[in-house]
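Tutorial sheet, problem 5. The two components below are modelled jointly, 411 residues in total.
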Amino acid sequence: MAYKPQYCPGQTQIAENRRKQLDPDHKLEKIRDVTDKDVVLVMGHRAPGSAYKSAHPPLAEQQEPACPIRKLVTPTDGAKAGDRVRYIQFTDSMYNAPCQPYQRSWLEAYRFRGIDPGTLSGRQIIECRERDLEKYAKELINTELFDAALTGIRGCTVHGHSLRLDENGMMFDMLQRFVMDKKSGMIKYVKDQVGVPLDSEVKVGKPMDAKWLKAHTTMFHSLVGTGFRDDAEYVEYIQRIHALRVKYGFMPKEA
Amino acid sequence: MTEATFPQCRIVTERLLNPETTEHLLNKLTEIPGIRRMVLNGPRLPVTVTYGPAKGMANPHSMRKPIHVGDQEVELQVHVGTVILELESRDVIPALKTACEQVFTHFTFRIQEGKFMKTEPSLVDYCKYGPDADKSILGLADPSSKSKPIIIQGIK
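Model answer (structure tokens):
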């Protein structure tokens, strides 16, 4: 029988959502349509339509050393063209955001190539070649991994993950990069990810409702969603890992 | 000589408060006799971007605006999340609860009793205010900042 990865343990909806997001064969549901130009605007690395800046000549134009690994690995489009490395960073609210930092790095490792994810408690950064990044960022924003109110695109001053939401149900942002249009209920970015005001607003759609968020979140939260202790299998798994690590810490020699 | 100790309590809401809600709440609180001191707590909303490539640029934020409390204008510097109060006696708490119930109609809140404000000068307070610090301003403002407490005329 062919090996079938399990991705992660758990019996709750949260665990099921995590498995879906991690499985590269599962197509992520597309729920908004932010254009290429808008993604470039929000990231703020280059002006839309301008040429990609490069860090080195295209691979085809430079002498490559004889290396078996280079023969095995097909370079990504960005690497082929010699693009510079750029980033996008997300902050996810604890209040049932659809994704969370550890999950992001994990799923990106399954789904994307040529990336360098950085995982922190409340934010997650992904670095890669610029044209690859734009492609990946578009997928991260347009699919079920993103919620307009509870996920923030924030290059710096990211605080908000663990704070209470504001009265409009939006995650705190010290730089208020995204605001809600009170009439339409639409959320629009008015600053790029580092807080520089945008010339034109970028609309990212309406926030998802509480029911959708509770059904699609990958974060345990005992007050607003599913508590971690409600998932016996997950608790057992974490306790086993914890016990093994502690025991190994006391007896670091192999039998 | 025994020093008087005053009860303290903290209003914690389910959501961070909009300036309009904060204004509404504080105006309700000013109608209650027996509140000695009050601190608005929450994450800071700086006037300029403090970090990153946009450092120094203006930081317009809809949650930072002046509000009118009693006869004073208060410039909000934080996105209000908790209100800490020092009371003259515990008898004031039911009135606080009634005021909060009138304001927080869309989300929950709780009033906690405890000790939330500084009552003795810290080293930084000593450096800033010297040995004879006025205890009524301790814990109301960050000693390293230039902001000063705002005095609102009570009704007592």
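Marking note: Strands of chain A lie at 85-92, 116-119, 123-129, 151-153, 178-180, 187-191, 197-203. Full credit if you identified this.
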